[in-house]
Amino acid sequence: MKGLSGRIALVTGATGLLGCAITRRLAAANVTVLVASRHAEKAKKWISEQSSEYASKLIPLELNLTNENSIKFVFEKIARKVGTPTILVANASLRDGLATPFNKLTYSNFNRLCEVDVAGHFLCARYLVEQLSSDTRASIVFLSSIYSIMGVDQSIYHSGMSPTPVQYAAVKSAILGLTRYLAAFWGRRGVRVNAVLAGGVRSVTRQSDEFVRNYASRTMLGRMATPEEIASAVAFLASDDASYITGECLVVDGGFSAW
Ligand SMILES: NC(=O)c1ccc[n+]([C@@H]2O[C@H](COP(=O)([O-])OP(=O)(O)OC[C@H]3O[C@@H](n4cnc5c(N)ncnc54)[C@H](OP(=O)(O)O)[C@@H]3O)[C@@H](O)[C@H]2O)c1
User: Fold this and answer.
1) Nearest atom (ligand 1) to Cα of 20
2) What is the pTM for the complete model shown?
3) How many CB atoms lie within 10 A of CB 255?
4) Cα–ligand 1 centroid distance for 80 (angstroms)
5) Ligand 1 binding pocket includes 200 (Cβ within 6 Å)
6) Angle at Cα 222 formed by Cα 249 and Cα 22, nearest 5°?
7) CA 134 – ligand 1 centroid, Å
8) Of 254, 156, 172, 170, whose CA–CA distance to 207 is shortest?
9) What is the pLDDT along the chain (259 residues), one digit of tens a residue?
10) In the CATH hierarchy, which fold is given to the domain comprising 8-252?
């Protein structure tokens, strides 16, 4: 893809299911990737497990999106030690609390998810753009979900399984507003802002066979996504192949939402 080689990217939640694939995809395109995790040791360990083809492009980074002061400090440190990133992949999301039953949800369940996914990523985006010189282009990609644009069909979740919760749909919808606002706010200075609305991604540790069958039968392609398929869309939006795309919310869901 055009315009990726030689750039610096920051990927939040880089050691998670999608973060791993996004990080590898960017590193394979010769991007230096700041591999952000709340725990530096976790990022270092993950990097040490990658093939030498990628590992030299990866830099571990400790970043907690719920700590406002640390976000500012981290961006200042990156600028001093590595250079200014021109790609931000706002991928991290909080899983804690997602299994809380509907009738037990509290303010805190909404607020904590919103802090990580929306407020924390907003601050990352602002600090990144504040460090750019006026003639430097940048690309920000938020990870949202198809549940930002459609309801959650409770019937695909079998008994004993927690359906995707209401606060997740609400927060992922907020990301669409954030994406369009920032795209308009920074467009004239060459910063593109887009979102990927991912459909369900296959994970052998998170999903039962029954759920996978139920979910797959709701997609046009008859299967869940692979992490690499979501990573390809992220890399495309980050690259210069998408140089005239901003404020876009790109659905990558195998047709789940298109019937
Ligand atoms: N998986 C899917 O099917 C799917 C579908 C649609 C959309 N998405 C979206 O795609 C993104 C990635 O999903 P995923 O399934 O790969 O998630 P994941 O495996 O749970 O990874 C998310 C990562 O976020 C990081 N994180 C959590 N709290 C944080 C905090 N306070 N500060 C900094 N980082 C924090 C965690 O990394 P550390 O523990 O290393 O800090 C975690 O590994 C999310 O935004 C998700 O909503 C996923």
Assistant:
1) 16
2) 0.98
3) 13
4) 27
5) yes
6) 45
7) 32
8) 156
9) 999 999 999 999 999 999 999 999 999 999 999 999 999 999 999 999 999 888 899 999 999 999 999 999 999 999 999 999 999 999 999 999 899 999 999 999 999 999 999 999 999 999 999 999 999 999 999 999 999 999 999 999 998 899 999 999 999 999 999 999 999 999 999 999 999 999 999 999 999 999 999 999 999 999 999 999 999 999 999 999 999 999 999 999 999 999 9
10) Rossmann fold (3.40.50)
